[in-house]
Fold these 2 entries.
Entry 1:
Amino acid sequence: MPTTNSPTRKTTSTGNPEIRHDWSLAEIEALFALPFNDLLFRAQQVHRTHFDANSVQISTLLSIKTGACPEDCKYCPQSGHYTTGLDKEKLLEIEQVVTQAKAARKAGASRFCMGAAWRSPREKDLTVVLEMVRQVKALGLETCMTLGMVDDAQASRLAEAGLDYYNHNLDTSPEYYGEIITTRSYAERLDTLASVRQAGMKVCSGGILGMGEAPRDRAALLQQLSRLDPHPESVPINMLVKVAGTPLEDVADLDPIEFIRAIAVARILMPKSHVRLSAGREQMNESTQALAFLAGANSIFYGDKLLTTGNPQATRDRALFAKLGLHPERRNTCHTEEHAQTAIGSALQQQSNQSRAAALAYDATLA
Ligand code: SF4
């Protein structure tokens, strides 16, 4: 046990890390400052207390409305404030979305995430979106949406339609936030998260690293997330994907080790949350991704697209999962016989222990 140099931590009587919402910035910075091996060891201890360490939740993300967003997020090629050459798309038809969701389900995804580049959904769009939720949910998939800001009433309607998760990222620290976005306040983001929680939906919220922020901003972002009570069920930790035409296209690269440290600290602060290795994965080599899983990341996006940035191809994911002995997290809902036949969980039961990781990785990444 690496007790020297470790920040003091409270533990329950069973030795499990407490679920805390009162981490101080100094405590979090002390975690970041741990020797790398000690930090990863501690993150692994927390991770193994709450999760199968070799299980990775897989989500698929579809952009249901692309580009021309009125917000000015400096990292985002979908912002209408920047010229990035992005092809804009109107809100997809419901049938198109359902077709994509079926393909994702067949490929082994357990959650289907739908993203729209809006400041907040208009009434006529929300009506369509609610029907998308109902139809995707009926396929037996968990549903997630990111539609910009929502108020209490909109969140309630999404929840009633069957939406499981709502994604709304905090992006960065409150202190650095004004350098990245000016058209939406940090307080408005927190209000949306409160509305989502109040409506009974699960929260997906994280941030983006490598936007020129200071180390303290990374600690402060994680502090903000850990203050949410309950913690977000999903915490996407993104590495900036630099897109030509956005104000951040030439920002200095973040050292991958610093990125891994942030994953590990997120795992320690939010022990029961799924920490998602999210945007920027395509730019990471296998070693960095392996370290991220070791640090406690246990969720990825699968598919050819992550909103408008690339995502590793199916064959690369399949190979990496097999190499690392990882397997997709089992879905906990199988509403139809067809689904049950194709679900990862069924495959699990049919495989020997020795071969099942590789087989499942294959199932999960079938194109
Ligand atoms: S991150 Fe979202 S809100 Fe910000 S510009 Fe992009 S699509 Fe719009």
Entry 2:
Amino acid sequence: MAASEKIPAHLRTRGSMEASDRREAYPPMPEALEVAVYDNHAHLEIADGENPLDFREHLDRAGSVGVHGVIQVGTNVATSLWSADVAAVEPRVLAAVAIHPNEAPELHQKGTLDDALQVIDDLAKRPRVVAIGETGLDFFRTEGPLQPPQRRSFIEHIRLAKAHNLALQIHDRDAHHDVVDVLLKEGAPERTVFHCYSGDRELAEILNANGWYASFAGTVTFGNAKGVQESLAVMNKSRILIETDTPFLTPTPHRGKPNSPYMIPHTLRFMAKYLDTDVNLLAAQITDNTFDVYGRWDDNPPTIRTNPVTGEPWDELEPSRFHAS
Ligand SMILES: [Zn+2]
């Protein structure tokens, strides 16, 4: 495994992922929240927009509007390593590690899925890795013959979450029934989160019945998201979380622009309005829930002053432009 003395600012760009040239500007800062919340799902390693923010710029902006921490989520070996490395030195970041359901079939075809799962197993032992994810099923992108390896990978991730006593973050796209089926058959981890919750009232009732969590992203603010909004109303308040899925799914009124954890206030304020409740009360409830699932960001503060991979001293972080300017 190649060891780098620097944590790179980004690992990939959204533009090349979507074969389009995204030259969008970041949206303006929203009004700050009074009660702190945490973004429980973001991919800060993806560069987006005409002037991409690096992870510390995202975190600085988030902190200035009351978003005090982020779970940085891996989707393959490289991004899971990056997530765990950043969490090891950055107090505002905890990490989730996994092979994404859209990556698992490809690795299976190359014959490297088991090696990749072994890396995830190793990373799960790091002190600031608090979740296995994102894993799950995606029948939107994955067709018939590739679904069995995707399912096998999901089952392995469930096993890892339980073995390491970590939370599980689930990616469920057009696969509600099968995701629930696998969870019930295998036995779900104690803390199971449906990331970017996309179900309807019926799925919300299933989550409530099993004590599973629904994490609401910017999609809940979209005009065509009636099922997600009805689910928000149905969910037990103790099982609601909030996320951005940065750089994707930017909430209204900035849909289509690059996303960042500092956009959480838009989603939170929409949720409070929809539920006809006070923003501060909802923020406090969601933060309690977040700590129940992942622990607190300062439970195991970063003590590492050496590169976790090479053992070299850690003075090589690339500077944050946001601080410098
Ligand atoms: Zn994600």
